[in-house]
Design goal:
Order of helices and strands: HHEEHHHHHHHHHHHHHHHHH
Shape: globular
Distance between the termini: 33 Å
Number of strands: 2
Structural class: mainly alpha
Strand order of the largest sheet: 1-2
Radius of gyration: 21 Å
Helix content: over 70%
Length: 489
């Protein structure tokens, strides 16, 4: 029974996704509740699976009973079980938030939207549990195809953004697949556990080096690491408002997880920080991404694009943290990845709510809001505090561990990058809050209308999550160090 938990986690959203057209044919209005029930069930199973892994160790699910490396394997260990909780909970929260918006603006597309969302969640589940590089690629592409379609479903300029996302995503997938081919040619295996054993003997092979470089370039495009981020700002800016939080909260985060899995578990710490220091180079790129993303956000006038660039900055922060090469930095990076998924969902909840109620898309239009939306303004303030890194939010403790990790190894440049990135993030949130709270009188009077209950509850849950991650940061950090640490630290 317990060895089948990975299959349950995948099948719950997948079976409901392929059943959704039939459900919609009978009664379209039940698609949203059915999706919520599926994701609630998945969330319960993900907590149960994490509890089992914590007490009894990793679960290996072998397809057809064939043992790896010949057979296909799904692995649920401490890190993947933790990320599974993130995927299922953020899927549930973002779908709950999306309900009123989908009903109001895309009622004719309810069935395809919830079908695609559940396919996306099931594909991300497959990515997280995949025990070999090729199956990770397959699920990465299913997730990407679902995301392209979800961005395009709004029509208009979203179609162009989706096409650009598809083109760049395909280039990323091609690089990844090329890397997989090189590694298979050099080792004759794709199973991650088997690959880690065989690579140690041929690390200096040009075929292996080329394969790893292609593979990392593919993942860098998928996670939108600057300067390979071209698809992300337009995709987020033009994606339908109810859909954007799902894509923003999960797509880049699961690609980041894949990077961590391959570098730390397949290549090994000694290799990526010693023999062939890939992570050292990635750390510099992460530092550039931290500053470039925050600067681009500060220069933006469109709210969704501003939040998208803020997300790019935080992808850089996570990469910078895990590349510090010590336990504190790695733990801070993983903790910040969890926080950033929540913060990104919160930011696009807020942007979607402002557009839903008042059609506000630019910072200059925020003068219309003022005190008319107390739930939304409160959610924005708490999310901004976390993005900047003010206690007691989760964002503060994530950055605190990143700074500690950098100080432990005397990397003062990384500390400076984190501080400057934080100040730039503070600057673009001051720009937003100043318009919203202190220039209200210059705007025309509008009736005070708050968001519908599911939207307010979604934003409320984000606020609670940010505070819970901050207040319980110590046990969460301890949990990451107990179950999600690669060997070698």
């Amino acid at each position: 029974m317990m060895t089948n938990l990975p299959a349950f986690l995948f099948l719950i959203p997948f079976v409901v996704a392929i059943s959704m057209p039939m459900v919609g044919l009978i009664r379209k209005n039940v698609c949203w509740p059915v999706a919520l029930v599926a994701l609630s069930s998945m969330s319960v199973v993900s907590f149960f699976a994490f509890h089992h892994v914590y007490l009894n160790g990793p679960i290996s699910y072998r397809f057809g009973g064939w043992a790896p490396p010949l057979g296909i394997e799904w692995v649920l260990d401490g890190l993947s079980a933790l990320v599974m909780i993130l995927v299922s909970l953020m899927g549930l929260l973002t779908v709950f938030y999306a309900g009123p918006g989908v009903q109001k603006t895309m009622s004719q597309k309810i069935v395809p939207i919830y079908t695609l969302v559940l396919l996306l969640i099931s594909a991300l589940t497959g990515m997280v549990m995949a025990g070999d590089l090729f199956n990770l690629f397959v699920f990465l592409e299913v997730a990407s195809l679902s995301a392209y379609a979800l961005v395009a479903v709004g029509g208009g300029r979203a179609l162009i953004s989706s096409f650009r996302y598809l083109m760049l995503g395909t280039i990323g997938a091609s690089f990844y697949l090329l890397g997989v081919g090189y590694l298979y040619a050099a080792t004759g295996t794709l199973n991650m556990g088997d690959l880690s054993l065989r690579l140690s003997e041929i690390l200096e092979s040009r075929t292996v080096l080329s394969g790893v470089v292609f593979l990392l370039m593919g993942l860098a495009i998928k996670m939108a690491l600057v300067p390979l981020h071209g698809w992300l700002p337009d995709a987020y800016a033009h994606a339908p408002e109810p859909i954007c939080p799902i894509v923003a909260a999960l797509m880049t985060k699961v690609a980041l997880y894949a990077l961590v899995r391959i570098t730390f578990w397949v290549l090994g710490i000694e290799t990526i920080f010693g023999n062939i220091p890939f992570m050292v180079y990635l750390g510099w790129i992460g530092a550039i991404a931290t500053l470039a993303g925050a600067l681009l956000a500060l220069s933006e006038k469109n709210i969704k694009r501003m939040f998208a660039y803020g997300g790019l900055s935080h992808v850089g922060l996570v990469v910078l943290g895990i590349s510090l090469g010590n336990k504190t930095g790695y733990t801070g990076g993983i903790f910040y990845l969890l926080n950033d998924a929540v913060m990104q969902a919160g930011l696009f909840f807020i942007a979607g709510t402002l557009i839903y109620r008042y059609g506000v898309k630019n910072v200059s239009d925020l003068t219309q809001i003022g005190g008319k939306m107390p739930w939304t303004v409160t959610a924005l303030i708490v999310t901004a505090l976390s993005m900047v890194g003010i206690p007691p939010t989760g964002g503060f403790f994530g950055k605190w561990y990143l700074v500690l990790g950098a100080l432990e190894i005397g990397n003062y440049l990384a500390v400076a990058v984190i501080i400057v990135g934080t100040l730039l993030t503070l600057a673009f949130f001051i720009k937003i809050l100043e318009k919203m709270l202190f220039e209200e009188r210059q705007a025309p009077k509008l009736p005070g209308l708050e968001a519908p209950f599911p939207m307010r509850l979604g934003m409320g849950m984000v606020v609670v999550s940010i505070l819970v991650l901050g207040i319980f940061s110590d046990p969460t950090i301890q949990l990451i160090q107990n179950v999600a640490l690669p060997s070698g630290f």
